[in-house]
Amino acid sequence: MIADGVEDEEKWLSAGIAGLQQNAFYMHRALDSNNLKDALKYSAQMLSELRTSRLSPHKYYELYMRAFDELRKLELFFKEETSRGCSIVELYELVQHAGNILPRLYLLCTVGSVYIKSKEAPANDVLKDLVEMCRGIQHPLRGLFLRSYLSQVSRDKLPDIGSEYEGDADTVMDSVEFVLQNFTEMNKLWVRMQHQGPAREKEKREKERSELRDLVGKNLHVLSQIEGVDLEMYKEIVLPRVLEQVVNCKDELAQYYLMDCIIQVFPDEYHLQTLETLLNACPQLQPSVDVKTVLARLMERLSNYAASGAEVLPEFFQVEAFAKLNNAIGKVIEAQENMPIDGVVTLYASLLTFTLQVHPDRLDYIDQILGACVKKVSGKEKLDDRQATKQIVALLSAPLEKYKDIDTALKLSNYPRVMEYLNARTNKEMANVIIQNIMKNKTRISTAEKVDALFELIKGLIRDLDEDLHDELDEEDFKEEQNSVARLIQMLHSDDPEEMSKIIHTVRKHILTGGRTRLPFTVPPLIFSSLKLVRRLEGQDESVSGNEASTTPKKIFQIVTQIIESLSSIPVPELALGLYLQCAEAANDCDLEPVAYEFFTQAYILYEEEITDSKAQVTCIHLIIGTLQRMHIFGVENRDALTHKATGYSAKLLKKPDQCRAVYACSHLFWLDEHDRIRDGERVLLCLKRALRIANAVQQMANATRGSGGSVVLFIEILNKYLYFYEKGVSQITVESILDLIELIRSEMNGDNAPSDPAADAFLASTLRYIQFQKDKGGAVGERYELIKV
């Protein structure tokens, strides 16, 4: 019995190593003096240390490796003895007189190796004798290591094609028979370990057996290295014999490991040609065996083989690999009724990967796999099992990665059905994968029908699913998700205006279900997509009636208005105002004055009723002024009404510096170079004078509150506006007014109470350099600037 105490085990190992080293020392002395009798005596005593039953496999292995190293030296001695005239046959007989069977068999294997190499007897006879003799050790641990030693010393002496040991009496078949027999006996010993000892130590024995598995698996590796094992021999002899042993041992650990070994060590083309035989063994394995991993690895190897070159694909078609694998998976799932759902999905994910590699053109196969997966998960609640959902994401991602085209995935009727079984979190994850795939591959989705199907697929990002009520998402992650949706909306495009209009309607239908947190992200890109369409439709004859004019700028603007109004339930008036102004500019480009005026009206209403924050008011008034400046469609009456409102808003801002800047910005509303009818110098001057009065008020307030003058930056900014309009030829802006302003700035900067302001100094110096630059440049503008003597 293997002792439980670690300390006792260490003590026994130390005693075993000490005994082994002591006898090895005497053996070396005998070898050095060419004393065969003593060499055999001490080597047998040395090997007797391997008879212990007190060590765990791990510790026994340490002892075995020390003995193995000594046996290699003994083997060299035997070779030298034969070269000195000692008969190998007599030596083979002599070692069999060792007292204990275990040392005797180790010595026999060592001499047997030399015997085969001497070629004094057919290798087949010696190998057969050795493998039969090893039956004498039936203790599982000692027997496994003995047979492992036999496999080790004989592997380079097996009769094989092109081998020096191949001959009339020795064939490849003999080698195969020897390895198979050794494998069979080793597997029996390995399995028997499980049934020795009390039931309470079963888990410990499982762990120990797992440590020994490579000793058994090495036999299969040796088989795979025999050159003479061609496809025919593998198909008719090797695989059936190995599978027979695997199935009959009825041991979970052995079956799983050996099936995996078969898949890993033998060539891919052999697996393909013997696929049916290999797959038929799977349902016969114990129910507790992890067959899904075995099959998944098999399909992975076959997929890689298929990817190695197009020339191998006909082999897959010839053996009907897909049908066989699909059928085998069905049988395995049927045989293992309690297979967890992640196991089922893993199998189908592996089959899908295989199919995409071998039959990329067969979408019916892909859909069939997805349908089978749906059938297995149907009737269940949303999948919360982490491993199962991970496998489903892998299953759904595979077609996207292969085809690099969501369009292909949309053709698969079962694709959305699989997504239905994902929980909210995984649904979002999968939706993100889909969007990233579209953006990475720049996929063009150009029909409303496809857009509708796509948005159904990514609905986890578009709207709140039920589970989301309890699913808190990090704010940064949420923003990233919604920005991905926004980028997706921008990518939707059709060259046909009619179809593009349908796409806009479809997207609108989906995003309006998104709730107040999503709309600020998804509405703007839809508005801009709509405005792109409007600009494509510029100049369309509005008089055309009926179906021919079903998509017109006016109709698009009606939809856009409704979409922006959907933001009214959310406190984002600045966003809505900005969108109204964008629409007004688009209406201006389409020469639709009433529409543009209405958009401005809505923007003004929002400004007056909703925007109360002073900083937001400053931003919005500058947006209004900037947009209004670019409008050319308005008649005198409408323009005057809008500019009057804008100047009024500017003068009512909370902070005086903000008032000043907004008022002088309004001056641009009354002078546009490209429009002769919008050139009112008087009102330009009026705005600038009002700005100067406000700047003066700022200075006075600074003197009153701080006892020193404020910054003159506002004056310098107004000076720059004076210079701009002077350069544009506004007659009301005179040289005298510019000089007076420069003098005012200098006096303010040089006053007794003036604070030090390097920024203002630099700003004024830069402005004066500009004046000098224009003088130096010459020409008509230069002549005007010559009049400004600074």
TrEMBL record:
<dbReference type="InterPro" id="IPR042491">
    <property type="entry name" value="Vps35_C"/>
</dbReference>
<dbReference type="GO" id="GO:0010008">
    <property type="term" value="C:endosome membrane"/>
</dbReference>
<keyword id="KW-0472">Membrane</keyword>
<comment type="function">
    <text>Plays a role in vesicular protein sorting.</text>
</comment>
<comment type="similarity">
    <text>Belongs to the VPS35 family.</text>
</comment>
<dbReference type="GO" id="GO:0005770">
    <property type="term" value="C:late endosome"/>
</dbReference>
<dbReference type="GO" id="GO:0042147">
    <property type="term" value="P:retrograde transport, endosome to Golgi"/>
</dbReference>
<dbReference type="GO" id="GO:0030906">
    <property type="term" value="C:retromer, cargo-selective complex"/>
</dbReference>
<keyword id="KW-0963">Cytoplasm</keyword>
<keyword id="KW-0813">Transport</keyword>
<dbReference type="GO" id="GO:0006886">
    <property type="term" value="P:intracellular protein transport"/>
</dbReference>
<dbReference type="GO" id="GO:0005794">
    <property type="term" value="C:Golgi apparatus"/>
</dbReference>
<dbReference type="Pfam" id="PF03635">
    <property type="entry name" value="Vps35"/>
</dbReference>
<keyword id="KW-0967">Endosome</keyword>
<protein>
    <recommendedName>
        <fullName>Vacuolar protein sorting-associated protein 35</fullName>
    </recommendedName>
</protein>
<dbReference type="GO" id="GO:0005829">
    <property type="term" value="C:cytosol"/>
</dbReference>
<dbReference type="InterPro" id="IPR005378">
    <property type="entry name" value="Vps35"/>
</dbReference>
<keyword id="KW-0653">Protein transport</keyword>
<dbReference type="InterPro" id="IPR016024">
    <property type="entry name" value="ARM-type_fold"/>
</dbReference>
<keyword id="KW-0333">Golgi apparatus</keyword>
